[in-house]
From TrEMBL:
<feature type="domain" description="SMP-30/Gluconolactonase/LRE-like region">
    <location>
        <begin position="15"/>
        <end position="258"/>
    </location>
</feature>
<keyword id="KW-0862">Zinc</keyword>
<keyword id="KW-0479">Metal-binding</keyword>
<feature type="binding site">
    <location>
        <position position="198"/>
    </location>
    <ligand>
        <name>a divalent metal cation</name>
    </ligand>
</feature>
<feature type="binding site">
    <location>
        <position position="100"/>
    </location>
    <ligand>
        <name>substrate</name>
    </ligand>
</feature>
<dbReference type="InterPro" id="IPR013658">
    <property type="entry name" value="SGL"/>
</dbReference>
<feature type="binding site">
    <location>
        <position position="148"/>
    </location>
    <ligand>
        <name>a divalent metal cation</name>
    </ligand>
</feature>
<dbReference type="GO" id="GO:0004341">
    <property type="term" value="F:gluconolactonase activity"/>
</dbReference>
<comment type="similarity">
    <text>Belongs to the SMP-30/CGR1 family.</text>
</comment>
<feature type="active site" description="Proton donor/acceptor">
    <location>
        <position position="198"/>
    </location>
</feature>
<dbReference type="GO" id="GO:0019853">
    <property type="term" value="P:L-ascorbic acid biosynthetic process"/>
</dbReference>
<dbReference type="InterPro" id="IPR005511">
    <property type="entry name" value="SMP-30"/>
</dbReference>
<feature type="binding site">
    <location>
        <position position="17"/>
    </location>
    <ligand>
        <name>a divalent metal cation</name>
    </ligand>
</feature>
<feature type="binding site">
    <location>
        <position position="102"/>
    </location>
    <ligand>
        <name>substrate</name>
    </ligand>
</feature>
<dbReference type="Pfam" id="PF08450">
    <property type="entry name" value="SGL"/>
</dbReference>
<dbReference type="InterPro" id="IPR011042">
    <property type="entry name" value="6-blade_b-propeller_TolB-like"/>
</dbReference>
<dbReference type="GO" id="GO:0005509">
    <property type="term" value="F:calcium ion binding"/>
</dbReference>
């Protein structure tokens, strides 16, 4: 295993999540789900700006122009960075107030994939939805508990998905044109001692970088063999998600959480809730915009 150096950005999130690299703005975004905060960090200047919303904010993606796409509670909205105007676009599960969005990505065809969970973490209560230009959510997977990490292969043939408590990364056949998926195989089984797989991203070699909640790091897995290739050790237990960014798409931004840590643990791991920047030697892909 390599030794990785990191720099940290103080954000002290209760539940940091949803990292996103905006290539046009040369900024990283991430969220604090429970506090409804959106963070914008400009990589060159090192300046961080925050926006607050009276909702749980789980997902930040890219829309047209200076618009972001946000997953707030169980609704999707566009947010104009210049005017700070919030415009509701669509939503799911309107009659289940205990549910919220968790993770979301945009597929290679410009469609949003976004999952739900119960805030009571009820087994099998969550779902995964696909949202296209018509803004009509279509349920793609049900019977999920914590709908989480997603990634597509460069050839657009495979979709990887994590339902966290299963400790599995599943591979699905992916149809680019229709957006349909069909289960293929379990690509990776996470040993119990390594924590739970949370958010993830894919590099240009097709390897998966997976944040391990309770596993104190980001692990690099080979989804073809199921083999663990590498680990970025971090000084916090609960690592939640990661994405590639920077000018060369070789910098990993990693989010973490303070939740489920008691006072003594927070003193032991004071950087919990901060985000970390790591040069990996690998490169990711430029994120896709939602095509409205």
């Amino acid at each position: 295993m390599k030794t990785y150096n990191y720099t940290s950005i103080s954000s002290q999130c209760f539940l940091g999540e949803g990292p996103y690299w905006h290539s046009d703005l040369q900024c990283f975004f991430w969220v604090d789900i429970e506090k409804g905060k959106l963070f914008q960090h400009h990589l060159d200047s090192g300046q961080t700006r925050t926006y607050s919303f009276p909702h749980r904010l789980a997902v930040v993606l890219e829309g047209k122009g200076d618009q972001l796409i946000l997953g707030l509670d169980r609704k999707i909205a566009s947010f104009d960075l210049n005017t700070q105007e919030l415009k509701w676009l669509t939503g799911v599960e309107p009659d289940i107030p205990l549910h919220r969005f968790n993770d979301g990505k945009v597929d290679p065809k410009g469609r949003i994939w976004i999952g739900t969970l119960s805030t009571l973490f009820t087994e099998g209560a969550g779902s995964l939805y696909r949202v296209g230009q018509d803004l009509h959510p279509k349920k793609m997977l049900g019977d999920l508990t914590i709908s989480n990490g997603m990634a597509w292969t460069a050839d657009n043939q495979t979709f990887y998905f994590i339902d966290t408590p299963t400790r599995q990364i599943k591979a699905y056949h992916f149809d680019l044109e229709t957006g349909d998926i069909r289960f293929n195989r379990i690509a990776v089984e996470i040993p119990e001692e390594l924590g739970f797989p949370d958010g993830m991203c894919i590099d240009q070699e097709g390897m998966l970088w997976v944040a391990h909640y309770g596993g104190s790091g980001v692990y690099r897995w080979n989804p073809n063999s199921g083999e663990l290739l590498d680990k970025i050790d971090l000084p916090v237990p609960h690592v939640t998600s990661c994405c590639f960014g920077g000018k060369n798409l070789d910098t990993l931004l990693i989010t973490t959480a303070q939740e489920n840590l008691n006072e003594a643990q927070l003193k032991e791991y004071p950087l919990s809730g901060d985000v970390f920047l790591v040069k990996t030697g690998s490169k990711g892909f430029r994120a896709i915009r939602f095509l409205q």
